[in-house]
Amino acid sequence: MTILQALILGIVEGLTEFLPVSSTGHLTIAAKMLGLSIDDPSITAFTAVIQVGAIIAVVIYFWTEIVVLVRAWFRGLLNAERRTDPDYRLAWLVIIGSLPIVVVGYLGRNIVSGPLRSLWVVAFALIIWGGVMLLAEAVAKQDRGERELTLTDSLVIGFAQCLALIPGVSRSGATISVGLMRGLDRVTATRLAFLLGIPALLGAGAYELPSALKTGGVGWLPTLIGTVVSFVVAYATVAWLLRYVAGHTIRVFVWYRWALAAAIIVALSTGALAAT
Fold first, then answer.
1. Tens of pLDDT along 205-217?
2. 8 A C-beta contact, residue 211 and residue 41
3. Sign of the dihedral defined by the CA atoms of residues 64, 69, 73, 76, in that order
4. CA 109 to the chain's CA centroid
5. What is the mean pLDDT of residues 24-31?
6. Most confident of 75-89, 203-217, 226-240
7. What is the pLDDT of residues 95-152, one digit of tens each?
8. Can you tell me the distance from the alpha carbon of 276 to that of 274, in angstroms, rounded to the nearest whole number?
9. Which residue, of 54, 73, 174, 263, has the fewest CB within 10 Å?
10. Secondary structure of the chain in the HEC alphabet?
11. Contact (CB, 8 A) for 38 and 32
12. CA 160/CA 129 separation, integer angstroms
């Protein structure tokens, strides 16, 4: 892998990890357009490692809030009087909402890394879930905030996060749209998507890292560059998205998803790109 290829993939990862457009789909497309084999263990290892950059970005961005939630959770465990703290309750909702992706992700790991690794799957997932996102905006009441989150919200949105295991769905696209369907306001749904994403992404990174180190990867310099670039771009993307959803719908991402899906289908149909 060249430095330029690593730079491009780092930018793609940082831009798409938290936008509702599917980072897996974009990385697959970008790697193929750069002439890289998505089935090569070293490329798979590289994408797993640069994802850590995006994870660190969201952890740093929400660091103060994470510390508050962790402290409230431990204090609540040790002191019954502290369990009335809303942050203690929110911490539990994040933990419980993260459990479905742990179970489903582990049980379905072979399917995700096998049959679903196709650009046809990416294209149709972009189209179908784009329709779900439009529906979510159409039915959204947005009459509940963070303090009105329930256990049911946490579990339903947690299971929605599992759908992101299908390349092209998008983890944030799944969680934000289902959050809107549950009546959450757009900012609350987006913040919850990020908070639920932290354990999920940390778990995925920890699972992939040993195999990434075992393959030897693509070399330390391209990997370092890809990871740093991913971190910087992801941090800026998270900050921008939270400001954006405060006053805008997520419909613009649907139009982008559909345009990208159309381009993929044309490229596949004409032989410009191979599906796997």
1. 677 666 666 655 6
2. yes
3. positive
4. 16
5. 85
6. 226-240
7. 999 888 888 877 766 666 566 677 888 899 999 999 999 999 999 888 888 888 899 9
8. 6
9. 263
10. CCHHHHHHHHHHHHHHCCCCCCHHHHHHHHHHHCCCCCCCHHHHHHHHHHHHHHHHHHHHHCHHHHHHHHHHHHHHHHCHHHHHCHHHHHHHHHHHHHHHHHHHHHHCHHHHHCCCCCHHHHHHHHHHHHHHHHHHHHHCCCCECHHHCCHHHHHHHHHHHHHHHCCCCCHHHHHHHHHHHCCECHHHHHHHHHHHHHHHHHHHHHHHHHHHHHHCCCCHHHHHHHHHHHHHHHHHHHHHHHHHHCCCCCHHHHHHHHHHHHHHHHHHHHCCCCCC
11. yes
12. 11
Q: Domain segments of the chain: what residues? A: 3-117+136-251
Instruction: Return the pLDDT at 103.
Output: 82
AA letter at 21: V
- Please tell me the total number of residues recorded for the chain in this structure: 276
**CA pair distance 176, 163, nearest whole angstrom:** 12
Is 153 within 8 Å of 176 (Cβ atoms)? no
Least confident among 41-45, 150-154, 185-189: 41-45
The DSSP secondary structure of 176-231, one letter per residue, reads: HHHHHHTTB-HHHHHHHHHHHHHHHHHHHHHHHHHHHHHH-TT-HHHHHHHHHHHH
Across the chain, what does the average pLDDT equal? 86
First to last CA, the chain: 19
